[in-house]
Design a protein that fits this description.
Length: 688
């Protein structure tokens, strides 16, 4: 928004101007919290705002004439910037003129030379008074001290400006009075009015009765503001009807022309050529000078003409980019349209040369929006993603409409702050873990891993086991987990025969607010070890006795005596069983199938065969190392089942001729016989 205040110049410090909070509809209590500040291009801060009440007061008296020089309207522009949210208000202070300056003349006194032979009605230009005030407070009229020879008359130039002329009312007589002293008074229209006086000394001459006359009363010219020294502006020309030295004209700037303009321009005294004499360091589009033409008579006569020089602007100023406010970093979840920065772009050239276009690169998620005059807002145009781009270097390009145009660039560095908008992501859809049974307690099983592209606490991932049961027991009785790195450890030894596989879920959660999480299924497969020996199911013994099988006395060859049946709780090759005869009382009578465990006769039974036989069967798995079990089977050859089973502690085979006992008896007998023979031999020797 925009608000305009009016204030008279020279208003004392502390004087109230208004209440900015009330005038703009702002809560005065929020001014400090919203970091209010006033921005102006002026070198001085003429106004203050009370942060508690919003009262606007004068900080320093304003001198309108010093601030705005000859401008008809004097305006001070301020911008009020508020943050949270970012708002910009434009304030204009119209400085009203007061009558604080009296009219003054450039010189302390003026001299006019008049030939005595001039007729009544002759006119002489008088100097204009200068009053720094404007409007009605400037010079309004002139008066002349009473004199019988002169009176004052106002004249109007071609451009409408007025100037005083001294008119001869009565012929002069130098012999009676050679000098006339007059007082010219200039009055302004203030209330009360102010005035300024200057003495006008008229010297009566008796020669040179014609003054030079310009061809034009007002000369107009136009030059470029960057014109080099020596550039011709205009050539003035005046004629003098007198002859000889009295008709020779010399040109110069009038004393009423300011010293600054006389330094910028020079005029040739003989040709009347006005040229550029230095750098045109002015900020006004129109310059006004008075040129005087004076003849070379003994008492030179002069006349003046006005020269108006229009300074044509050249595009010699580039746009100036100022960052008034910048918010960085900004969260990545900022909605489109969020204001990032407030820019002020100003070109000191007037007209088209001072008009500026502003843009940024099209491939950025930002755009420039015009705000108040010469202000732009840098806003987001789409959603941001810090994980894709964490910072932006935005180059702002401002180009004026001059010919050739001038371009200025300024870089704005905007960082994107992280928002917890990404949940952890596991490296796979599921994890399979293989572990051997009989593992040690605390054994490392697996390490799950999840990544989170967020940073800081938003990207720090912790892991937990989701509550579940395995084989009727809580999961936490089987496993434990490192919360920081996702390592999984066994809390008990697994038994393949009891639990072959199970699954559970691991949850990965970041430390953002609110926290985001993801879960994954972990399948645990327990591999078998050869930790179970074969179990013999048949035949079985009771109370430590040997299992007995009855075979017909004259059974045929390949008769099925029995089938050894065994089972192994292990899996795969650890449960592959083979059957072997470890011992047989008659190795020629029985054979055992290694794959089926069938015990059969190898030939037909004979009547001479022993009635009792005993075989030992070994059942062995294919594990590494292999485990085995044995079973002893007693075989009774009988056609009918006896009422009482015989004792199979001995095999029923004939004892061998040379067993350990027999050998012992034979050795003992041999020793005794040898000793007895030796004794007899000894006795015989003695007798002989």
């Amino acid at each position: 928004g925009q608000i305009v205040y009016s204030i008279a110049e020279e208003t004392e410090s502390g004087a109230s101007v208004g209440n900015i909070a009330k005038d703009l509809g702002i809560d005065a209590a929020t001014l400090s919290a919203r970091k209010f500040r006033m921005i102006t291009g002026s070198s001085k801060q003429y106004f203050n705002i009370n942060a508690s009440t919003g009262a606007l007061s004068v900080n320093e008296p304003i001198d309108r004439e010093q601030l705005c020089e000859l401008k008809s309207v004097c305006v001070l522009s301020y911008e009020l910037v508020l943050e949270n949210p970012l708002e910009l208000y434009r304030m204009e202070f119209k400085v009203l003129d007061i009558n604080d300056n009296s009219p003054s003349f450039p010189l302390s006194e003026y001299h006019i030379n008049m030939p005595e032979f001039l007729s009544p009605g002759a006119r002489f230009t008088l100097p204009n008074a200068q009053d720094l005030d404007e409007g009605a407070n400037s010079v309004q009229n002139y008066t002349l001290s009473p004199d019988e020879h002169f009176y004052l008359e106002m004249q109007i130039r071609g451009d409408g400006s007025k100037y005083p002329e001294l008119v001869l009312k009565k012929a002069l007589d130098r012999e009676q009075q050679a000098t006339h002293r007059l007082v010219l008074t200039a009055k302004d229209g203030g209330n009360p009015p102010k005035s300024g006086d200057v003495p006008v000394i008229v010297t009566v001459l008796d020669t040179n009765d014609n003054a030079p006359e310009f061809e034009q009363s007002v000369y107009r010219a136009s030059i470029l503001e960057n014109s080099p020294s020596g550039t011709l502006v205009v050539q003035v020309h005046a004629t003098d009807l007198d002859e000889g030295p009295n008709g020779e004209v010399r040109y110069s700037f009038s004393n009423t022309t300011s010293a600054d303009l006389q330094r910028m321009f020079s005029i040739h005294p003989h040709t009347g050529e006005v040229t550029v004499n230095g750098v045109l360091a002015v900020h006004r589009p129109l310059l006004e000078m008075l040129i005087e033409a004076r003849d070379n008579g003994a008492f030179g006569m002069s006349s003046t003409a006005k020269l108006l020089v229009e300074i044509t602007d050249v595009n010699n100023h580039g746009p100036e980019i100022t960052i008034t406010s910048l918010s960085s970093p900004i969260p990545e979840d900022a909605v489109p349209g969020t204001v990032i920065a407030l820019l002020s772009i100003l070109d000191k050239d007037p007209g088209e040369n001072g008009k500026v276009t502003c843009q940024i690169s099209e491939n950025l998620p930002f755009q420039l929006k015009p705000s108040l005059q010469n202000y732009y807002s840098l806003v987001t145009s789409e959603l941001l993603d810090r994980e894709l781009t964490s910072e932006y270097n935005i180059t702002i390009t401002a180009t004026d409409l001059g010919s050739p145009p001038i371009t200025t660039q300024k870089s704005v560095w905007v960082q994107i702050s992280d928002v917890n908008d990404n949940a952890p992501v596991f490296s796979a859809d599921a994890f399979d873990v293989f572990v051997e049974e009989n593992n040690p307690l605390g054994a490392f099983l697996y390490q799950v891993s999840a990544s989170d592209p967020d940073i800081g606490e938003n990207g720090r991932v912790s892991y937990t086991l989701r509550n579940s049961t395995v084989a009727g027991s809580a999961l936490t009785s089987f496993l434990s987990m490192n919360l920081a790195n996702g390592s999984i450890y066994a809390k008990r030894a697994f038994d393949f025969e009891q639990l072959r596989s199970f699954y559970f879920q691991v949850e990965a959660k970041d430390n953002g607010s609110p926290a985001l999480s993801a879960a994954i299924t972990v399948n645990v497969y327990i591999s078998d070890q050869n930790d179970n020996a074969p179990a013999i199911l048949y035949p079985t013994s009771q109370n430590g006795s040997i299992a007995v099988e009855v075979v017909p006395r004259l059974a045929d060859e390949d008769y099925l005596v029995t089938k050894v049946v065994a089972d192994d709780e292990d899996n795969a090759q650890n449960a592959w069983l083979s059957y072997h005869l470890a011992h047989s009382s008659d190795s020629t009578l029985f054979q055992l199938s290694p794959h089926t465990g069938e015990l059969r006769t190898t030939r037909s039974m004979r009547s001479t065969d022993f009635l009792k036989h005993k075989v030992v069967v070994v059942v062995r798995d294919h594990g590494e190392p292999p485990l085995s079990s044995t079973v002893t089977v007693g075989i009774l050859l009988a056609d009918t089942l006896p009422q009482a089973l015989p004792d199979f502690d001995d095999s029923g085979e004939p004892p061998p001729l040379l067993n350990a006992t027999n050998i012992y008896l034979i050795v003992s007998l041999a020793c005794v016989s040898f000793i007895f023979a030796a004794f007899i031999f000894f006795l015989a020797i003695i007798r002989l």
